[in-house]
């Protein structure tokens, strides 16, 4: 398992590197892409072998018999998360942005409110707005650089027009791994306001030492309003395979979702199914465990480096590889600090405001990359803000 060797992704139709000049004005040649949430690492050998075996076979016909695929998902969820999944409860969508859109379509109507705990993954708001539903932003409290839920404030915000709550667990950005007590409170909130709870757990495998992700299925009193979403794509860096799983235990919700899948003629891509089946294996598990340790050291180096810049603070991640950096202490406007990061440091990072309320003074940096790139990014940032020292 080699996470250190740089792999050139420029001019490979790679969104992260090949679109950064157009979007951020960061040089395609000399810039560093730290925005899109995919990593700079090759997928594990077991996945690459599955794809080369397919390519060698050379016949790319329709996929049939999902039993191995479903068994692999059930094995992974039981082994890694203590969650027993019934294979008949699994639906496969074209990734989880698509899964979110499908859930909005199946469980809400145009005009309905959909609750987000902001700042949160920007594509949620994008699909909610695009489908004619309304985003209801419930802002997380930033308590000494750590996000916490704020149910008293959120209860007062509800007006009865909300139908769904999307939970991001673990949370992107900020990396919180929600505790059992917090998840229990989410369940109570959903029940109080009669919301369907869509729990996006795409980051569940990438926890850091000392952190345990709790699947929402393990929380009491929520099963009849719960829809789970998971995927192998973040964990194994196979986002281009566009796979994702919506898992629904409640028969009524499952029936409604199945009806929309059928009406839209949805069926998965065979490459994604082969890759996920190969990923959810003991070999895949060993790769993920090595990856988590590598990412943990990346976050230590990145945080230690950027936190030396006066007024800059990188939130301590409990999971995943998306560093969430608060520039509010610099006293600069968002335009000013973003200009320095993009034009002086030549780094493309996600703009905080796209994540909703509470994100205004932040940038998000992807640290899923070889160590040398993280060190380069840190020294560019220190140089770009050297006058603050
Ligand atoms: C919370 C969350 N959900 C979904 C996605 C993307 O899902 P997909 O690529 O499967 O559409 C991301 C990507 O960063 C994410 O952070």
Record keyword descriptors for this entry.
389 residues, 7-stranded mixed β-sheet, binds pyridoxal-5'-phosphate, 4-stranded antiparallel β-sheet
Largest sheet: 7 strands, mixed
Net shape: globular
Q: Give the count of helical stretches.
A: 14
Which radius of gyration do the C-alpha atoms yield? 21 Å
Structural class by secondary-structure content? alpha/beta
> Which small-molecule species are bound to the chains here?
pyridoxal-5'-phosphate
Mean pLDDT: 97
Summarize the helix and strand pattern as letters. Answer: HHEHHEHEHEEEHEHEEHEHHHEEHEEEH
Low-confidence stretches: none
* Proportion in helices: 25-40%
Distance between the termini: 38 Å
How would you describe this protein?
The protein is α/β, with parallel strands linked by helices. 40% of the residues lie in helices and 15% in strands. The strands form 4 sheets. It has a 7-stranded mixed beta sheet, with helices on both faces. A 4-stranded antiparallel beta sheet has the order 11-12-15-14. A hairpin with a 4-residue loop joins β5 (141-142) and β6. The longest helix is centred in the last third of the chain and has 25 residues, at 282-306.
